[in-house]
Write a structure and sequence with these properties.
Layout lengths: L43 H26 L13 H8 L7 E3 L5 H6 L4 H9 L8 H4 L10 H16 L5 E6 L6 H12 L4 E7 L2 E2 L2 E2 L8 H7 L3 E6 L3 H16 L5 E6 L18 H8 L3 H11 L4 H25 L18 H23 L2
Parallel strand pairs: 1-2, 2-3, 3-7, 6-7
Antiparallel strand pairs: 4-5
């Protein structure tokens, strides 16, 4: 089991001495015995595809933020800076693995083939959820902090009881590890040796609370205390993330129990579009992490391998433009919910009490229409 357990200093900079890394920020590929075997198949074309994926979700994220600022979405949770963590892990999953995300995993949804229309519906308030989870093997985005880890633990226990070869994975941030739900999920998963990967995107900020205020040690060390196999990796290194996710999935599929990945990354933008990070975050910290950009390091590494970066960037820009156009079209064609939609799917079968509420609410709204006619 690969582990990294240095002496923890919350003021010390993060680096290769505190987590596993394959590609350094300057694009240099260096040996990593714990991870190299898991990405031995990633050649130049495969690495270019990962770069294009990251470029696409960066554009998706920018469009989501712009749409919210233009009043088209009620809220948006930016992922800027976390592209490698989401693409590296998302592309390591098998199609029958089931994903339980938080509210920021737009990139994982992109990997899963979620339609842009479905991705935006919840954030616009046009639907209570975005997509049918069983069509893409990914649950809808979870707003309640950490709740999805318990759902994932239960699902993974079911996979084991059914004798399935599939695994489950659940995503959450560093702040969620302070919630009791996450600890309870690890207890259940470990007790039943469930095939579940806990994937923590440690982006250093739980809204305005820094990670150093939440823990006196590495987050992955907490998981080890529950008996989970742990990997702590550079979350801005797409190959390190992919390798760790593949290794963790292989571990849980053998019946060896759950695993935990701490992907050390950074939230470059706001917590959500309702947040102002300039009130609590030092601009110098942003500069430090901007130098560790996940896309820049892949581009630098590909350049060292002789790849045609000009052609690659044209391909990535074309793919990103197409995705952005799809998002824009989805907004313009998205219908507003009707009154009846508010009462649909609350219960699995017709419910008399709910039907009475629907009728009363419809009559209430109709009363405004009558009053408006009377004043003309």
């Amino acid at each position: 089991m690969p582990t990294v357990s240095p002496t923890f200093d919350p003021k010390a900079p993060e680096g290769p001495d505190t987590y596993l890394q394959v590609i350094s920020p300057d694009g240099t590929r260096h040996p990593c015995p714990e991870l190299d075997e898991w990405v031995g198949d990633i050649d130049v074309p495969a690495l270019e595809k990962l770069y294009i994926d990251m470029a696409c979700i960066r554009r998706l994220d920018a469009e989501g933020t712009a749409l919210q600022r233009q009043g088209e979405l009620g809220l948006w949770a930016p992922l800027l800076g976390q592209e490698a963590a989401q693409i590296g892990s998302g592309r390591a999953l098998e199609t029958d693995d089931f994903i339980f995300p938080s509210y920021r995993e737009h990139g994982v949804a992109y990997c899963r083939g979620v339609n842009p229309h479905d991705l935006l519906r919840m954030w616009r308030g046009a639907a209570p959820s975005g997509w049918n989870p069983y069509e893409v093997n990914m649950a809808n985005q979870q707003i309640v902090i950490g709740a999805q880890t318990l759902h994932a633990a239960g699902y993974a226990m079911g996979l084991k009881f059914d004798g399935s070869a599939a695994a489950a994975i659940t995503y959450f941030g560093d702040g969620a590890t302070s919630q009791g739900d996450v600890s309870e999920a690890m207890v259940f998963a470990a007790s039943y040796q469930a095939p579940l990967v806990f994937f923590c995107q440690n982006n250093h900020w739980a809204i305005s609370e820094p990670v150093a205020r939440q823990t006196t040690g590495h987050i992955a060390d907490r998981a080890a205390g529950f008996g989970l196999a742990t990997w702590r990796v550079d979350g801005n290194d797409v190959l390190a993330v992919m390798a760790a996710t593949r290794a963790a999935l292989a571990h849980v599929r053998t019946g060896s129990g759950p695993a935990f990945i701490e992907a050390v990354t950074y939230r470059m933008g706001a917590h959500t579009t309702a947040d102002d990070p300039t009130r609590y975050r030092d601009a110098l910290e942003l500069e430090e992490w901007a130098a560790k950009d996940p896309l820049d390091r892949v581009a630098a590494h590909l350049d060292s391998l002789g790849a045609d970066l000009g052609e690659l960037k044209k391909r990535s820009e074309s793919a990103a433009d197409e995705l952005a156009a799809g998002l824009r079209e989805a907004i313009t064609t998205m219908p507003d919910p009707t009154v009846d939609d508010l009462f649909a799917h609350v219960y699995s079968h017709p419910h008399q009490g709910l039907e009475e509420q629907r009728e009363n609410y419809s009559n209430y709204l109709a009363g405004f229409a009558v009053q408006g006619q009377g004043t003309k």
